[in-house]
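Hey, resending since the last one bounced:
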Amino acid sequence: MHNPPPKKIGALIPVRLSSERLPGKALMKIHSKPVIGYLLDRVFACKYIKPQNVIVCTTEDPADAPLIAEVENYGAKIYRGARDDIIRRFHDTIEFHGFDAVIQVDGDDPLSATEYMDLTMDRLLSDPELDIVTCERLPLGTGVKSFTRKAMQKVFTHYKTTQNDTGFIYFFTKSGLCRQAVVEPISPSHVHKKARLTLDYQADFEVFSKIFEALEGDGNTACHDAVVAYLNAHPELVEHNCHVEQEYWQRTIDKAGDMEFIDETGNTRQLKL
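The structure tokens again:
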């Protein structure tokens, strides 16, 4: 009996520089290192990932051209596609590179937890019936997802709304098209109920600057335990950007709340967030 061939696993990171709220944020520097570099360090540390299989999925907009040299010099690759249609960008990237499964982290989340990249992919590979594995109860901006090529094909076949740069993941998790599992925090020390660690506003950048300067000034990549411990020790930092949280979620609802897909019976439906 022959063993099945090893799966080709990649990582997808959607990034564009023409952000509405904080333009160019991926290339903003902390300690002379761009934000995207901190995120790539974490993805490169995942046990399933080779740097050449990390793909920054950006757009064909000329404004995103500065990403190319920065990402490629770091050892990752670039794929350029539709400006607002991340589902197509992801689908085309997976097909081009022949990935069987991918870890997906958001370009806005430079503190994405490497530990949970490993755990979500562990879980995904352990059950051939699964399409996607997500995280719950981690601080906003640290959770990640892993999904299969099959899941991507399901979503690509059924989605209708092509402006999905906000809320694209809901086609996987809220449509009923995919079999989903969830990874919970493996330690109480990984949980922080108030922390906001996603980069959308200047206040968020100021929080990241403090964390990276404190924990990674010597060049090491801080583990998730250390990040949460630092936030627990500095509650004033958690308060610094909490005022943007309501606006953040309202924007997500406004942009993603009416996205449409075709269900398995052929009917057009809206996602229910």
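The chain is about 35% helix and 15% strand.

Sorry for the duplicate.
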